[in-house]
Automatic annotation (TrEMBL):
<feature type="transmembrane region" description="Helical">
    <location>
        <begin position="35"/>
        <end position="52"/>
    </location>
</feature>
<feature type="transmembrane region" description="Helical">
    <location>
        <begin position="85"/>
        <end position="106"/>
    </location>
</feature>
<keyword id="KW-1133">Transmembrane helix</keyword>
<feature type="transmembrane region" description="Helical">
    <location>
        <begin position="487"/>
        <end position="508"/>
    </location>
</feature>
<feature type="transmembrane region" description="Helical">
    <location>
        <begin position="292"/>
        <end position="316"/>
    </location>
</feature>
<feature type="transmembrane region" description="Helical">
    <location>
        <begin position="459"/>
        <end position="480"/>
    </location>
</feature>
<protein>
    <recommendedName>
        <fullName>O-antigen polysaccharide polymerase Wzy</fullName>
    </recommendedName>
</protein>
<feature type="transmembrane region" description="Helical">
    <location>
        <begin position="211"/>
        <end position="227"/>
    </location>
</feature>
<feature type="transmembrane region" description="Helical">
    <location>
        <begin position="520"/>
        <end position="542"/>
    </location>
</feature>
<feature type="transmembrane region" description="Helical">
    <location>
        <begin position="171"/>
        <end position="191"/>
    </location>
</feature>
<feature type="transmembrane region" description="Helical">
    <location>
        <begin position="239"/>
        <end position="255"/>
    </location>
</feature>
<keyword id="KW-0812">Transmembrane</keyword>
<keyword id="KW-0472">Membrane</keyword>
<feature type="transmembrane region" description="Helical">
    <location>
        <begin position="118"/>
        <end position="140"/>
    </location>
</feature>
<feature type="transmembrane region" description="Helical">
    <location>
        <begin position="261"/>
        <end position="280"/>
    </location>
</feature>
Length: 548
């Protein structure tokens, strides 16, 4: 296979006129923006009519304003083509913090401010964060095309010379997928998975845990135009084989009692397909009878059987430490057949209780882990209880930052950090504990960067957010190969980035990453390097075995 470096050299400077003429392949982008605005306006009107209150009206106005900013400054053909993954990060934040909560709370018969104790603060902080993201993205593009142009070119050349943009064959993709599946099985089906943190399980366990995202690689065989350097002749995608493989992921997820294991892959492919449509990689004429049936079937599966399965897994979660993986699968399937128990569990969890930590927002168990504004609200509530930036929160954040480094590195630089203790809790746990909560450490509550930021840095957290996100944008866009000839923009995405699509999309909404602005700097120090090296190691192994 010829090396990618033989391809035409990408431009290192931005075109003089960033507003490019509309190309036929960007028709879906215009349609998407129109549909989103229609949906947002309709939902905003109905939210204002059916759930009128000053707080809800305030939230609706902020959603309209925020999406207007995202529509104008982020969702453009040029950004999507040249700065794909950094644009996905801001687009994901805009959709999960504004558009989707507005629409889906309405569909569930709730106001967008449902169960929010500090709705004004939630939307003010989110809007300020969005403004920071958009401003930093603008500065990043100027920096990359100017002072950082040579650095970006050299780093991207290293990736190209090491086959990051070489188009893998189907066999290679399947091998990578089964390697990831093995890592998933070892991590989530081993008897020690629920006994302590990854640090306690050792370096080998952490290596297998790092392989988990690669289990989703075969799913992207359905989206080959996204990572193919050349437009291949039409080949029918191996849909049946991919569905069988997805079923294997489903059973591993049940055995590990983690609905995220299979939902992450599904959402990553769905988001990647949307980005492919926006880039014009796929036919924009998606509205026909066949696709309508498939979309309806997919929606029914996600909101019906998969939602029931996710609820069943939560019901049996309390027993997972005492059951083997096989027993967990059987127990989950047993509960899945008990529709009455599932209904009662959901009814119980929709009742808002007076408690120190409450995550109630969406009824749908998957939406609640995708775009849940209650995490923002709960973290801000705890920060307000503390009253001002807390020295203990700052010390914990510093320790959490250093704890990402391997123990030999910490010892070499004489950095004293108890990694086992620090990593045994989340930012949400520590914030809960410092604000007066009892027995909170070790519960791994999902905090949010607004609350933990206020408790650690005060309003200065926005500055740390804006500074750190600029080099992060550069790193994630290294997985994008972009060419421009005249007005024609061509984009190829590396599989190393595609398999992280769900991670990028939810980076600052509901994820372990979104808990603190400090995680940005941890990602810069180790996260991106570790992911890139692991992908390179897999490619190297394939080449040594003459499978690449």
């Amino acid at each position: 296979m010829s090396m990618v470096a033989s391809q035409k050299r990408p431009l290192t400077s931005a075109p003089q006129t960033p507003v490019l003429p509309v190309q036929p392949r960007f028709i879906f982008l215009g349609l998407f923006k129109r549909w989103i605005w229609i949906a947002v306006f309709v939902a905003a009107l109905l939210q204002s009519l059916f759930f009128f209150s000053p707080a809800n009206l305030f939230a609706v106005v902020f959603v309209l304003f925020a999406w207007g900013l995202a529509d104008k400054f982020v969702l453009t053909a040029f950004n999507l083509s040249k700065y794909t993954f950094s644009t996905v990060i801001i687009l994901g934040f805009s959709l999960t913090q504004y558009v989707l909560p507005l629409i889906f709370t309405l569909l569930e018969g709730k106001p967008i401010t449902y169960n929010l104790k500090f709705p004004y603060s939630v939307f003010i902080h989110s809007l300020l964060a969005l403004v920071v993201f958009i401003t930093s993205h603008h500065l990043y593009k100027k920096w990359r095309e100017g002072l950082a142009g040579r650095l970006y070119y050299k780093l991207s050349l290293v990736l190209k010379r090491n086959y990051f943009f070489a188009t893998p064959s189907d066999l290679q993709i399947w091998i990578i997928g089964f390697v990831g599946l093995a890592g998933m099985a070892v991590t989530y089906l081993s008897g020690s998975h629920f006994d302590g943190t990854a640090e306690e399980r050792g370096t080998v366990a952490k290596f297998f845990q790092g392989l988990v995202p690669y289990a989703y690689t075969p799913l992207f065989l359905l989206l080959r135009p996204l990572f193919s350097l050349k437009r291949p002749p039409f080949v029918k995608p191996p849909t049946l084989k991919v569905m069988i493989f997805a079923s294997m992921l489903l059973f591993v997820g049940m055995g590990g009692n983690s609905r995220g294991l299979f939902m992450t892959g599904i959402s990553a492919v769905g988001i990647a397909y949307l980005i492919g449509l926006l880039l014009g990689k796929f036919d924009h004429n998606i509205f026909n009878f066949k696709n309508a049936l498939l979309a309806g079937l997919g929606l029914w599966i996600i909101t019906g059987p998969l939602a029931d399965l996710g609820t069943s897994m939560v019901i049996v979660r309390a027993q997972r430490s005492n059951l083997t993986s096989t027993e967990l699968v059987l127990k989950t399937l047993e509960v899945l057949q008990n529709k009455k128990a599932i209904k009662q569990f959901r009814a119980m969890n929709t009742v808002i209780e007076v408690r120190d930590w409450d995550e109630t927002y969406f009824d749908n168990i998957f939406l609640s882990r995708f775009c849940n504004l209650k995490y923002n609200d709960a973290s801000l509530e705890l920060a307000y209880k503390m009253g001002k930036p807390n020295d203990d929160m700052l010390s914990y954040s510093i320790d959490k930052f250093w704890a990402i480094l391997p123990l030999p590195v910490l010892n070499f630089f004489h950095i004293k950090v108890d990694k086992l203790t620090v990593n045994a809790s989340s930012y949400g746990d520590y914030l809960y504990d410092r604000s007066g909560g009892k027995g909170g450490l070790g519960g791994f509550r999902t905090g949010h960067f607004a609350g933990t930021g206020m408790a650690t840095f005060g309003w200065w957290y926005l500055l740390w957010l804006g500074i750190g996100i600029i080099p992060l944008f550069l790193l994630v866009d290294l997985f994008v190969m972009y060419y421009q000839q005249g007005a024609v923009m061509t984009t190829c995405l590396s599989l190393a980035g595609l398999i992280q699509m769900n991670f990028f999309f939810t980076l600052f909404s509901v994820s372990n990453f979104s808990e603190s602005v400090v995680n940005i700097y941890a990602f810069l120090m180790r996260g991106w390097i570790q992911d890139a090296l692991l992908y390179w190691f897999i490619l190297l192994a394939l080449r040594k075995l003459r499978l690449f």
